[in-house]
Amino acid sequence: MLEIHADRVWHPTLLDQVDSTQDWVRSNIQDLPNRSVVSAVSQTMGKGRLGRVWASPPGGLYASILFKPAPVPEYASRVSLALAAVLVESLDRRGISGMVKWPNDVLAGGGKLAGILAEAGGHPEPWLILGVGVNLCAAPPAVGKPYLPAVHWGLFGTPPDASVLLDEILSGLDEVWPVTDADPLARVSGILDKSLWMKDSVVRINAGRESYRGVLKGIESDGGLLIDVGTGERVFYSGELSPE
Predict the structure, then answer these.
(1) Which CATH code for domain 2-195?
(2) What is the pLDDT of residues 169-215, one digit of tens each?
(3) How many whole angstroms separate alpha carbon 161 and alpha carbon 59?
(4) Domain coordinates in residue numbering, the chain
(5) How many C-beta neighbours within 10 Å does residue 180 have?
(6) How far apart are CA 108 and CA 90, in angstroms?
(7) d(CA 193, CA 185)
(8) Which fold has domain 202-243?
(9) Nearest to residue 221, comparing CAs of 76, 78, 118?
């Protein structure tokens, strides 16, 4: 067991190859303790947001973090942004400028370096699984035609070992979110504000069947994205963001 604070313990499991750490945790959720952390050397069916595939060859960080019981719903939806802020800080400490692409990506050098996936459920008790994938030594080929290319840490400096970065993530998460009944964003609002991708620029957000164009103003205290759509400011809690 990996001790981060004297009164808080993470429970790590390292797998060789797995279809998806998210699926593995969900399949074993009844037997796993709270704060389990399952990582894998590679994934054959890594999961991204909106059902996309996250290519996961050896040489990256692929992990899923289990909170059981889950924090209250309004806080659970904000944890992925807190983790994105922690990753940006890890990059910053190494002299690499990272950006948070709302709601769940971390960018560097204009490309996608990391993705975060939050999944929640209620059986056998409320749970939250927070998945994280970081390209460390290679940028996997993109699926489809994304407007942002995949990049890897090695393009900007010597990448950390996956286990070292995972320890940093867990330590950082404990630092910014010391108790799960507190707001995960309370201590990272400044990081998100200065590192928000496309802030003060014209963007498009596809939210359900609707599409909006406007100037991205920032992230609200509850994690919503504030955009001036021309007729006024509007807050979005889900959607796909892209440059206009």
Answers:
(1) 3.30.930.10
(2) 999 999 999 999 999 999 999 999 999 999 999 999 999 899 999 99
(3) 9
(4) 2-195, 202-243
(5) 17
(6) 12
(7) 11
(8) SH3 type barrels. (2.30.30)
(9) 78
Nearest in space to 112 (alpha carbons), one of 120, 123, 122, 104: 104
Kindly provide the b/e burial profile for residues 131-160, where b requires at least 16 CB atoms within 10 angstroms of the residue's own CB: bbbbbbebbbeeeeeeeeebbbbeebeebb
| Among the listed residues 82, 52, 216, the one whose alpha carbon sits nearest the alpha carbon of residue 142 | 52
pTM of the model: 0.91
CA distance 142 to 131: 19
SS3 label, residue 158:
coil
Compute the distance between CA of residue 61 and CA of residue 74 in angstroms, rounded to an integer: 28
Lookup result for tokens 């892209």:
242
Count the neighbouring beta carbons within 10 Å of the beta carbon of residue 52: 13
The beta strand positions in the chain, using DSSP E, are 2-5, 8-18, 36-43, 61-67, 98-101, 105-108, 111-121, 127-134, 202-207, 210-219, 225-228, 233-236, 240-243
Q: Find, among 98, 124, 140, the residue nearest to 28 by Cα.
A: 124
List the beta strands (DSSP E) in 71-209.
98-101, 105-108, 111-121, 127-134, 202-207
